[in-house]
């Protein structure tokens, strides 16, 4: 309480008087902060609804603004800010963990059915994103506007006249806003008025880091709406979403709403937002990219080696597993048992599930990727630590890498689309050791084209169940064609004998295949077309060029190179061994065989063949040496037998020949 004696001690100078009043105002504001903080800390807010807690944050933000105005924007709000930060962190942590468990339950019971949404679906159709829409279309009542204008315009005069005078206009404003018949949000009125004042004065008011800066929020909202409108105009296809995906999108909206209101915990909110996405990524990758629900009968391991493994996604998967489950001590989601496909309908059902899971994840990644640059605009970047800034870049890279999961998951669909074992066997049964050039391609080309056409028809039939667009269909077809090309090279490398005419027949078969594929599919160019052509033409390389060719083409597997070398009769033994010895682990494709082991095995085979040949020669020589004595023994025994049987004197010439 101010005492009269304190005023008498003041100097008549206005500067000292203003300084004294400002000091008193700061002390009053500190007392108010302490009382509000004590009361706020004592409250148990973890069970509050999310929207109710956001209303509390909005009120506290307005209260801080009031304190700044009361102290002429020279106050220190650390006391109340710290209390709000502690309670908000506790609330958002409890809310996030509970919804992670809920998300885990949803994923364990997800049937991967496409959720029907409109073709022009946007996140702004959801209630959680209504706060991002502009308030320019609202027309508040004139009476409330007039009262607010009167209240703000008279602030400076009121402070000079009497700092503690109660403003009748403010009381009237509170009475009007509290009327049950009035449905106008007072905060929307204030925000709208501030927009008009800022547009007239072309000035951006300064605010504390904890305040929700209206100019920044307006810029954020405007750019966000424009960005999503542009995104929706580009992609007019109906999005493929599940019920779980929609729940995650709603949580995104709630977290971004809290981020826009209370920026002091912005990085923690963003990390929780990314955990929701990473959890969804983890489950889909674990269920559809690592486990194989489409087993093959024979030669399954060799086909698996032809599928490219994305090391970036594998690393991302391991990092997510460590961050979410080891640090938070949450149990990993329960996975369903591996299904064995019995018929074509079950196979198409698995294809449908994989497409829905993959495309819903890609939609989430693109949604966040479009939001992230705009979210950064409202972050207090100067207050972030360096590791937090680095994490923001990591989050952005995760979102950019996520669409690559299409290749990993759709490759498993491609494995069952074509009978690759039959394709390899059909290539092996063809006689490539020809003496003349043929003009007709082999039958395995027609069989392969028929199976690929069946896949295209199956995907077209699937469009009746889920909204497949051209991008999704082409992604599946590209992975299937890419695997076909690799199997063709695998089959050509297993050929035992081949002449120049036979190699020309290979080129004819492949050219016929490419022409038919271009007519069948709207994909240009055919994936990995050069991969097969280069391998076929390498057969004609001279002895001096083969080593350089092998070094320039590390995409081929070691067994492919070894099979090619075995067919090239123009190569010397020295060149073959030099090429095999040049193999290094990891330089010739994704084959699991170590190069040094391969060379050692090849050398041992040669040594074993040479050893058998020498052993056979020695054995024949031994038999020749032992043949003469045995013949003499047989001759003597036959002579004695004859003499004992016929005791007649024979001429020596009859039996033994002339005597010596």
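Q: What amino acid sequence fits the structure above?
A:
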């Amino acid at each position: 309480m101010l005492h009269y004696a304190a005023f008498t001690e003041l100097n008549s100078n206005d500067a000292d008087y203003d300084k004294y009043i400002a000091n008193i105002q700061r002390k009053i504001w500190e007392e108010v902060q302490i009382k509000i903080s004590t009361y706020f800390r004592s409250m148990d807010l973890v069970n509050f609804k999310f929207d109710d807690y956001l209303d509390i944050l909005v009120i506290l933000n307005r209260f801080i603004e009031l304190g700044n105005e009361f102290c002429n924007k020279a106050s220190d709000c650390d006391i109340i800010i710290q209390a709000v930060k502690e309670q908000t962190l506790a609330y958002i942590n409890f809310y996030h963990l509970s919804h992670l468990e809920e998300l885990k339950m949803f994923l364990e019971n997800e049937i991967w059915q496409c959720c029907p949404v409109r073709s022009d679906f946007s996140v702004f159709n959801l209630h959680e994103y209504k706060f991002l829409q502009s308030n320019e279309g609202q027309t508040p009542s004139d009476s409330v506007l007039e009262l607010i204008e009167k209240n703000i315009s008279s602030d400076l005069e009121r402070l000079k006249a009497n700092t503690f005078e109660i403003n009748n206009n403010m009381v009237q404003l509170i009475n009007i806003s509290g009327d049950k018949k009035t449905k106008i949000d007072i905060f929307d009125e204030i925000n709208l008025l501030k927009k008009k004042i800022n547009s007239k004065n072309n000035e951006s008011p300064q605010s504390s880091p904890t305040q929700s800066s209206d100019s920044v929020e307006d810029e954020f909202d405007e750019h966000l709406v424009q960005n999503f409108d542009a995104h929706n105009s580009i992609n007019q296809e109906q999005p493929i979403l599940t019920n779980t995906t929609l729940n995650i999108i709603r949580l995104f909206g709630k977290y971004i709403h809290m981020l826009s209101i209370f920026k002091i915990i912005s990085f923690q909110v963003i990390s929780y937002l990314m955990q929701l996405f990473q959890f969804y990524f983890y489950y889909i990758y674990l269920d559809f990219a690592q486990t194989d629900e489409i087993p093959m009968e024979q030669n399954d391991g060799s086909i698996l080696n032809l599928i490219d493994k994305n090391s970036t996604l594998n690393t991302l998967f391991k990092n997510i597993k460590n961050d979410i489950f080891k640090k938070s001590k949450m149990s990993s989601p329960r996975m369903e048992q591996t299904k064995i496909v019995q018929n074509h309908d079950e196979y198409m059902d698995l294809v449908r599930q994989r497409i829905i899971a993959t495309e819903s994840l890609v939609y989430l990644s693109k949604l966040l990727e479009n939001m992230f640059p705009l979210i950064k605009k409202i972050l207090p970047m100067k207050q972030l630590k360096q590791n937090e800034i680095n994490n923001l870049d990591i989050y952005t890279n995760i979102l950019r890498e996520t669409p690559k999961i299409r290749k990993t998951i759709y490759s498993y669909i491609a494995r069952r689309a074509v009978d690759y074992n039959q394709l390899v066997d059909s290539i092996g049964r063809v006689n490539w050791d020809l003496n003349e050039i043929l003009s007709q391609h082999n039958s395995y080309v027609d069989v392969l084209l028929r199976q690929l056409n069946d896949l295209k028809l199956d995907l077209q039939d699937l469009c009746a169940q889920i909204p497949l667009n051209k991008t999704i269909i082409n992604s599946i077809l590209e992975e299937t064609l890419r695997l076909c090309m690799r199997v063709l090279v695998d089959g050509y490398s297993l050929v035992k004998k081949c002449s120049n005419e036979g190699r020309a027949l290979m080129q004819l078969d492949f050219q016929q295949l490419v022409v038919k594929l271009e007519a069948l599919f709207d994909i240009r160019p055919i994936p990995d077309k050069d991969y097969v052509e280069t391998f076929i033409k390498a057969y004609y390389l001279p002895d001096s060029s083969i080593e350089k060719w092998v070094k320039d083409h590390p995409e081929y597997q070691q067994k492919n190179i070894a099979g090619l070398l075995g067919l090239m009769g123009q190569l010397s033994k020295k060149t073959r061994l030099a090429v095999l010895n040049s193999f290094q682990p990891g330089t010739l494709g994704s084959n699991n065989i170590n190069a040094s082991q391969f060379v050692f095995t090849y050398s041992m085979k040669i040594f074993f063949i040479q050893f058998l040949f020498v052993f056979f020669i020695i054995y024949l020589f031994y038999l020749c040496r032992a043949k003469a004595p045995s013949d003499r023994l047989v001759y003597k025994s036959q002579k004695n037998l004859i003499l004992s049987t016929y005791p007649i004197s024979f001429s020596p010439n009859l039996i033994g020949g002339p005597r010596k």
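Q: And what stands out in the fold?
A: Residues 14-140+214-406 form one domain.
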